[in-house]
Prior knowledge:
The radius of gyration is 17 Å and the shape is globular. It folds into two domains: 17-58, no CATH class; 63-152. The protein has helices at residues 17-38, 67-75, 77-85, 130-133, 137-147, and strands at 47-51, 54-58, 63-64, 92-93, 104-109, 112-117, 124-125. It contains five helices and seven strands; from the N terminus they run αβββααββββαα. With 159 residues, the chain is of the alpha+beta class. β1 (47-51) and β2 (54-58) form a beta hairpin. The longest helix has 22 residues, at 17-38. 35% of the residues lie in helices and 18% in strands. The N and C termini lie far apart (37 Å).
Amino acid sequence: MYVKRSRDENDDRLKSRNESRKEGKTKCCLEVERLKKFYPFLKDQVFYNDLHNFPCVIMPYFRPLTSDERKAALKEEIRTCLSNFRDGEKRLKYMDGDLRWRHIGYFHTQEGNKLVMFDLADLEEVEGHDDVEGHDDVESQITALSKRLPNNNVEGADP
């Protein structure tokens, strides 16, 4: 459910309830669109709906990763998801500091567990290409997640 009271970017005033609901509907619809785009196996599992006049995304349960799964997933699965956001017409990434372990979970399918990264409505568009600009947003996001692991013991992560 999107229940956040939004603030106006220009004067930092709280937006009206109607303005906040309208923004919430836009964000929820974008979340649904992106979940279906990046995870086709969720096509019939994710929907937009209003619940008690609040915009919300209806989606299945994503099991949080255990500490051991987090360490293992950083090596390939999460890197693959983050890279997929960078492919296509719009190059997308999580905003700096917005990627959290709570945005990542496993969805159980007949083929096994599939890693899903969500909270995609706030992904920002990236200008240019990593290799041209001399930095790699995917690797910086992997490093940021690794720093959020208990004891920070991930191979190749910055201390």
